[in-house]
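Predict structure. Chain length: 267.
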Amino acid sequence: MIVVKVGGSEGIDYDALCDDVAELWQEGQRLVLVHGGSVETNRLAEALGHPPRFVTSPSGHTSRFTDHATLEIFEMVYCGKVNKGIVERLQRRGVNAVGLSGLDGRLFEGKHKDSVRIVEDGKVKLLRGDHTGTVERVNVHLLNLLLDNGYLPVLTPPGASFEGVAVNVDGDRAAAAVAVAVKAEALLLLSNVPGLLRDFPNEASLIPEIPADRVEDYLEFAQDRMKKKVLGAAEAVRGGVRRVILGDARLVQPVRRALAGRGTVVS
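Prediction complete.
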């Protein structure tokens, strides 16, 4: 079992990804695919006159502030355009994929955070009206029901709060939770960079390997969204996943290359 998470940034080749996933699936590889959609969400938000707002936490993590209008735009893109686009690509390649959000069947479930602490103009502030959460529980029964009957799950945020309210959850950390829950051998976090870079954006500064017990020591090298990927990697290895690979989704055969160790390997 492997879990593949592909981001939603510029430059990602979804056709190459789906070629690779389809071939592996048809060879008998069990897998769950998780995806993002940040760039498309930003475009639609701008077009609708509700541009994205990104905030920084006191610990230095950058995230999207998700008010109710943003959550609705988020669902349009993640659950609609991007999810169904990937499902269609896989169906054309002979894979019976099923696209679901973490809200469906409470696949991703956790506590709703209504407020978030941010740093703005050098001051720590409390911002209310947020619709975010962290995945604390994964509906493994539903995933196994699909997998055991020949369906490839294609999953995306949002998730569900314990009260059944839709909440934005981080895709990388959700994928880590899925990998732990299904006892995956490997978790692949694929994006538009070759892995964790010591000197971002210099791609020649790739860090090829990180010891599992020192993952969080490497957070200092992680820029912007990469911080969540490193945190997801740490959570996955702590939960028993043997390998996490931060790989490049711009390549041909991105999944096979990551499984072969191309990228930053945490093991």
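Summary: The chain has a mean pLDDT of 95.
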